[in-house]
Amino acid sequence: MKCTECRGTMKTKRENYRYAASGLPVTLAGVKVSRCSKCGAHEVAIPRIEELHRVIALAVISKSGRLAAPEIRFLRKFLDWSGAELARHVGVDVATVSRWENGQQPMGPIADRLLRMIVGCRQPDQGYSVEKLIGVRGAQARPTRIDVREAKGAWRAEAA
Ligand SMILES: [Zn+2]
Q1: What is the whole-number distance in angstroms between the Cα of residue 148 and the centre of ligand 1?
Q2: Nearest Cα to 148, choosing from 80, 58, 44, 67?
Q3: d(CA 63, ligand 1 centre) in Å
């Protein structure tokens, strides 16, 4: 395999890969990463990415701490909504959504639960329980570390 940047040789091995593209502290355990020894470019093979995003979204809405700015952004993108669409669905203006997502304004506890519900409703087969809303607590919103690994052909998340 040749590097697309410099035509150097790429070496492939399995590693724990920080999935920075998600915007969240997500680590994919044991995925195949090819790295160029010459220029340092890398390519990662992530199978079944839609399923992976479902699993991450479920882990995020299942956490007990309040939703953090990058998690709100991840969930909105997961819904395939613009900021304006999220604003319309939760009944705020678009400037509020952008303040939530850039961390200038914490999301209130009701909007937090509403967003979880919307994501949970989109995935009824994932078995999200509204009972989990009772467990949401705390004022501090920090992104939860999530480790995801592929086992028996399915992605599984463990919130760290
Ligand atoms: Zn290279």
Answers
A1: 28
A2: 58
A3: 39
Domains and CATH numbers, the chain: 49-143 (1.10.260.40)
CA 6–ligand 1 middle distance (angstroms): 4
**CA–CA distance from 150 to each of 3, 16, 19, 45 (Å)?**
26, 12, 14, 12
Distance of CA 100 from the midpoint of ligand 1 (Å): 38
Output the CA angle 69-59-50, nearest 5 degrees: 90
The rounded Å distance from CA 135 to ligand 1 centre is 48
Q: What is the mean pLDDT of residues 2-8?
A: 93
26's tokens: 């997500």
Q: How confident is the model at residue 159 (pLDDT cuts 50, 70, 90)?
A: confident
127, two tokens: 């078995």
Contacts of 49 (CB under 8 A, 6+ apart): none
Please give the sequence-ordered ranges of beta strands (E in DSSP) within the chain, or none if there are none.
10-18, 26-36, 42-45, 146-151, 154-159
- What is this structure's pTM? 0.89
Is residue 1 scored above 90 in pLDDT?
A: no
